[in-house]
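Q: Convert this sequence to C-alpha cells.
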Amino acid sequence: MKKPKIREYRYERKFRVEDLDVAQVRMLVKRHPGIFYSPFPPRYINNLYLDTPDMENYHANVSGVGERQKARIRWYGDLFGEIPKPVLEFKVKDGLVGAKYSYPFPAFSFDSEFSQNGFQKLIAKSDLPDVVRWQLRGMSVVLCNRYYRWYYLTKDQKYRVTVDKEMRYYHIRQTANHFRYQFLDPKAIVVELKYARDLDPYADKVAGFFPFMLTRNSKYITGIEQVYL
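A:
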C-alpha cells in the first residue's frame, strides 16, 4: 500500500496580475528585500481535476465552505503522450490554510483516446489505499489545466513565491477527447506567496512589498466557468 506524502498546513496568498507583464512581475520578485532566488528551473505544470457528478468540489470552493478539497492528477513537462510518473493530489483547505496529500498514480496515456472508463480502470488496478480508490470511484475527470511556473524562495527559505502564466483550460469529455473546447487566459499572471502557519504574523511585511491586489483565485473555478458555463 502506498502511503501519502503529506505537506503540512500552510498559508497561500494569491494575487492575480493583469496590468504588468511577466518580466515585470519577475523583476519585482527579484528586487524584494527578502532576497528571493530560484531553487530550480521553471517548468510546465499539467493538472487533471476530478469531481463528483454533482460537482461538489466546485460548488464548495465557489461558496467558500470552510473545509473543502480539490482532487487532481499532476505531472510536469509535455501535456500529451505517455505520462510515466503522475501524482494524485488531494488539496485540503481549512479556512485560510491548506495541506496537500500526494500518492503516486499509475502511468497512463493522455491523448484523444483518454476516457472516463480508462481512468476508472487505472484506479481499479492501482495499489492506492482502499479508502482513496473508493473515493475516486465516485469521481470523474472534468477539467485539464496547464500553465508555466517560475519558483522563488527567500534566502532564509521561509517564504516561497510562484509566478504562473499561460493558463490554459480544456473541457474533458466522457469518451474520446479532441480538446476543441479550451480557453487560454493570455494576460493573467497568478502570483502565490506560501509559508508555514507560524510565519503568518510576519507575512504582511513580505506581501506588502508587492503592488498586487490579494484575490481569491482558483484555477479550477476559472477553468470550469470558462469551458463549461
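Residues 116-125 form the longest helix (10 residues).
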